[in-house]
Amino acid sequence: MTRSEEKPIRKLKQLPSQHVMAAGTPMCAGCGGLEGLNEASDVLGENTVFVNAAGCMTLLSVYPFTPFRGSFFYTAMASAPAGAQGIRDALDVLIAKGRLPAADDLQVVVLTGDGSAYGMGLSSTSGAIERDLDFLYICYDNEGYGNTGHQSSAATPLGARTATDRGGFHGRTKNLFDIWVAHQPSYVATAVASEPLDLVQKVQRAKQLSGPRLILMLAPCPTGWDYPPERSLEIGKLAVDTGAWPLKEYVDGQVRHTKLPKTRLPVERYLETQGRFAHLFEPQRDEATLRAIQAKIDADFAAIEGSTTAPD
Amino acid sequence: MSRSLMTGNRAAAWAARLAGVDYVPAFPITPQTEIIETLSEWIRRGELDARMTTLDSEHSMVTAAGTAATAGVRVFTATSSQGLLYAMEMLYAVAGFRAPFLLANVSRGLAAPITLEPDHCDVLAARDSGLLQFHAASCQEVLDLSLIGYRVIEDKRVRLPAIVNLDGFYLSFTREPVELPEAEAVAAFLPPFDASALGLRAGQPLSQAVAVLGGTPYSYFRYECHLAALQAERVFAEVCEDFGERFGRNYSALERYACDDAEIVFVMMGSFASKARDAVAQMRAAGERVGLLRPRLLRPFPADALAQALDGKAAVVVVDQNLSIGKGGVLHAELCSALYGRADAPGVITSFIGGLGGRDIRREEFFQMVSETREALQKARAGTLEAPPAPRLLFTADELRELRKMQAIAAVRDAEVRSSRPPPAPNAGSQGS
Question: Residue ranges of the domains in chain A?
């Protein structure tokens, strides 16, 4: 189902010049998740309730301050989508019974990190999608339990050093995009703040649809990934240009890549920017792990060659 | 008003229907499921204008209940046992939301070992969560305490969610005559939910349940929940008075049966108290001055009312259908804390654990509890009671023999495992069998 059309944003120049969210939050300097949230909020506007699960962004609203112009509701680590369900159902009931003007309706947006989205919150997420809940899920994915000091999560990539895998993570990485797609929701997209046009176009497309929708944002994390905060945008761009974070979307039953690198760079260019991968290079190169990381990306891209179409 | 036979589960569903609830987040669990099945059917037939959503767990269900109540709708939900514990994190959270809704808990013992039969370990695990607790002993009370409950929790002096507790099987699946009030009369008693400061809508941003830094705001907000819960005792009394005038059924925080001139008083919660009531009637007929006190309110805890009701009594027998492992009966501990230091408090308070996992409590066992309490009382009067009698499990020699047979079938070979637990001391059950 499609909502009323807004004027599509086609150029960087069309991006809003002022953020909807206020400045001065307690997020770390260079937080890639906060930048992505700012870009998304600008499209979503003020008539929004963000339903939050335990994570870094829980600290955006610390009594009595909030950077949100709309509403913010903290629930728990496992059940933000269930919190969204209660709000959506209540608003629907109030509108249907004439106790709330339809004009006062809110967009219900779940906002969590990867720890909740890939792990503890997955049951309530799956339930919400299966019930065709009309909500947008924004996940800021910094590939670890960031707020607690960056322990390994189900999103941690191969080789990354974390607080619980000092020698580098060697498990599997869960594919949240495909897990969502398997539920056949309205919309699923990956994004990153360093590609603002791609991100806002996706949020805009998501906003115009109803039903379950996910924006999965890579959130470069200076403290967790161990790099200087001023490099967040550069690292986000390298994630895309090396294919470590493919920009894609699922809509109408099709996955398409929205911004393929013209010349895909070797993944080492991305890995070497971050302290969490330094042990793959020093004191000696861990060729096996480096090859495995590159091979995984190559295989992903081999599978998508030819499936690429430009966005509308 | 019409009178019909119905189960406690159906009475709970009727309460939701008569309260005109807007929203029912649900999740099935035995022995509660009949409640949500009934509501679902009424909604389908258009007899109840509400939305029901089946969530993926009780944790999600209570989350949705709390957020929906914050958004300003009247919410009803229900669970049992493992479900209540699965939701435990959210019980504490939704109390902090200060958004009122009612949860019917159909009491059932907790795993392990897993059982379907009732005791109060589930609901008492939620004792400190901030949800008020109303404990019913009949199907009529399930209905009435729920209607009263909505008025109490939606009162601006309270604004907390609450549990109405009914015992699995004994109430959930037992038909009793229930007076159903007319919908118009209930509507006059229970006005529409005025969400006031709550509500989520465009142009009225609300930050709900946000983080605090430091103990100052945290202490303030949690203690504010406590003060609101304490105020609920007075609000409950006011609402009960109005309910009595409208519907002719009078309630208070305590049910007193044959208490006035009683020397020894049983204190029990829930439907098993009706077993005590029967035994008290028998003992009264035999000339014994015994009585029964049954709290309908557990949170807020009616400490003063209990103390006043027990002032000047010789002894109290607390029968707990629960077990705080490593301590004993929860109600016993709570009652002792309410009575300690009062000049006219009973000198002897005995503690018995009975009815765990639905185990019956027989009339003879009530007689035996009184007789043991009387012995302790005589020692106390003679100055020879050095310490109150230790808490006791109601468990007969016959039951132990049955259990030994099960262990033999289960091929428990370790003789030490079997004999390391001292056999229960004989009590009324063993005498009677």
Answer: 12-304
